[in-house]
Amino acid sequence: MAFPFSISGTVKQSGRPARLRASGVSPLILGAAILAGTALSSVMSIPASLAQQAPSALVPAALSSAQVVRATLPNGLRVVIVPNRLAPVVTTEINYLVGSAEAPEGFPGTAHALEHMMFRGSAGLDKDQLAAVGTRLGGSYNADTTEDVTQYFYTAQAQDLPVLLKIEALRMKGLTLSEADWSKERGAIEQEVSRDLSSPAYLYLQQLQSILFAGTPYAHDALGTRPSFDKTDAAHLRAFYDKWYAPNNAVLVIVGDVNPVTALDQVRDAFGAVPRKTLPERPKVAPVPPPAKTLSFPTDYPVGFATLAYPMPGRTADTFAVADILSDVLGSQRGALYDLVPQGKALFAGFEYAPKKEAGFGLALAAFPKGGDSAKALNDLRGVLEKIRKDGVPAELVDAAKKREIAQLQFSANSVSGLAAQWSTALAFHNLDAPGDIVAAYQAVTPEAVNRLAANLLDPAHAVTAVLTPEASGKPVAGKGFGGAESFASTPDKPVKLPDWAENALSHLEEPKPTPQPVVSTLPNGLKLIVWPSHVSHTIQLSGEIRQNAAMQEPEGKEGVEDLTEGLFSYGTATHDRLGFQKALDDIPAWESAGGSFSLQVLTPDFEKGIALLAENELHPAFPEKAFQIVRMQAAQGQAGLLVSPGFLFGQAIKTALLPAKDPELRHATPQSLMSISRDDVLKYYQAAWRPDLTTIVVTGDITPEKARSVVEQAFGGWKAEGPKPVVDLPAVPLSKASRANVPDKSSVQDSVVLAETLGLTASHPDHFLLQLGNEVLGGGLFSSRLYRDLRVKTGYVYSVGSSFDWGRTRGSYNIEYGSDPDKVGKALVAALQDLKSMQTAPPTEDELSLAKASLLRSLPLRRASLSSIAAQYLGLEELGLPLDNTDRAAQVYYKATGAEVQAAFQKWIRPDDLAQIVKGPAPTW
């Protein structure tokens, strides 16, 4: 599990919800995941006053001014266009230099509310047309609101750039902002507030910011409050829009496979006529460090957290680069803070830096087991930080952090949308000319400067202390079903008439063309190697996966042995101890992880060094006895809290509803099973489960297939499989039946609802393509889907809703998920079931089917818009046992499918009356 929001204060708008997984979280990685969920990228954050001309060899072209086209239009719109040939894809990101800091007094969520209304239509493109255009584009579009900047970003096929620009220009020039639309959107945004108020972490960070930034606009979270939304009206939003949404208050970043000169002409055509405005004066943000204060929060987490927060510089401060390096050192696995973990004093420990534009804060945390000694965890945390404040940090860790930050810039070009985010953040948040301007500033950081800043910032007189204590909510109970009834207008059966410019660009659906295939080979030991060369940066990424299944492979009574095995990979190898191995990675530098899933990121010249270290860790882990004892104890302590946490109970309730008794997937570790495991058990499990003939490695980036094969074979060719292959595929399961369960969660104010059932087919059955196409109509198509329109747009019952299929080699399942206030759960259920059954009683309309086809077919190239997503796609296909050209096969089915075929597939495979209903929330809803 992770914090469901970033500690940057970013508010995410209306994105496709993440699929709920019916499984628990390993206590060994829980703390790491929570901290990682708060992580902020700060690799390009430096004030212009510190930026100097950096050596060109250290600044990747994609992050310097050398390869970009930039201009400022007569109306003041700043434009930056960065070419990237990774895929035929483009990302546009328009940054309005306004956020919650500019909200009127008493209306802290105004910027967030306006962000929502930007999806409700504008002059020349109403909300239905916008939804239809968005679906036809097949891309991903979203927005976020921060204290300082509001961002709207879209990723689509490069050929559709003019359409993206037209959408943003219309929204900039003349937003509709009707009272009727706001009354509907208010319901959805209040559901979003309920969702976040259900998170103890959100409540903690909200109160933390109110203390650290007291007396400034940053004291109010960017999300807003229900009372402020209740008194907000369309006129209020119009006034905010008219003041701040102007071309001379915006930065437009375009990244992708485009001709920069042509793209700039298209920008001029779209935005040139939008008038500039006289901007109001901005509020000042200059927080005063607060006196020390202590907070406490009950949570539904499996483990507790002792935290210390300190005021730190903002992104435009002269000391930002020093603060960023300090935070890297404090969070280093070679540092004293993380060392609390191998000492057995914390389940996890780390540090994160959350810089906003004008101010920031740092957060140190240590995880302790449920029922553990929070006071001791706090004292250990304080002791480490106080020693650093007095004695400073090791110079070698400062040098390692600088080297990593500079090297990390090279990876930015490996994702089209990621590169756009880098440029947007550099220009809009940090007042830079280019992200690469940070290199010289990082180079200038000295250990002395880091130590001076640590002595000043880590002052206990200004620390905000907080303890987040796990609290059980109770056991799941059976339910009688949801009450409530509601009637809805059926989905419109007439096509939405698009504007001519959109119709001309998007109406024709081209027959899909085959995707170029990777180079595939198999080593003599059975290891499969997939190589996809791409030369957008001088970096190489490796992703590997061993086909394993703890449910099938863990011995009876030794549940949890896989978790222990995975947790021990970070404790060194036969050649290097824990600190020595991490230093070897820092010296390259390389980013590496080992285990059942393993990975490597490294600069091109250092690929052989990096893969040698990866292979050393993967094939020759030390699994030291002392570390084993500590990891086992930590795992047992964490598991004790996990087993009574609402999140785990929710996952188990979903599994129990879908699976037969004694199914392997119902197995889970207990403190007792974990403590019964010996180091010999770990060694036996590792020897049985880690095999080259069950392993796939994908290499992407700046390398040839021949070179990749040579280096991989040198590193992994000596790995031999012993004994017969283990059985890793789960047995098939019968079709599930309707059931109902409620999982209490006292910390929530909103219910999380899952409707789920098993299916009689898997991903190898050709009908699964038709089901995917139909699901795009029903719940996968975001703004244009039936579920989204009926449960959010028309009624405001939910903030997020979606439906999805989960495919495996031997099993398949279907689910609908949404979040809703308890009194709206039943109404939302009625609407969702009605929409689902309508897929069986009539074929999708021609317009719906056309939209769904366009969405899926145009989205296929987008899945290759980053090296990470390319690798994930190939590894996913290998895991399912599907051919690597499966995407092309899907495209042909989507292109040729009829509405009658989709209806028939839903009639044959989907069983609305057998859906299990599982709710996690504050109180039973029946």
UniProtKB/TrEMBL annotation:
Pfam families cross-referenced by the UniProt entry: Peptidase_M16, Peptidase_M16_C
InterPro entries reported in the protein's UniProt record: Metalloenz_LuxS/M16, MPP/UQCRC_Complex, Pept_M16_N, Peptidase_M16_C
Gene Ontology molecular function, alphabetical: metal ion binding
Residue intervals of the Peptidase M16 C-terminal domain: 234-403, 676-856
Keyword annotations of the record: Hydrolase, Metalloprotease, Protease
Every Peptidase M16 N-terminal domain range: 80-225
Annotated coiled-coil segments of the chain: none
Superkingdom: Bacteria
Family per record: Belongs to the peptidase M16 family.
Official protein name in the record: Proteinase
Species name: Acetobacter persici
Phylogenetic placement of the source organism: Bacteria, Pseudomonadati, Pseudomonadota, Alphaproteobacteria, Acetobacterales
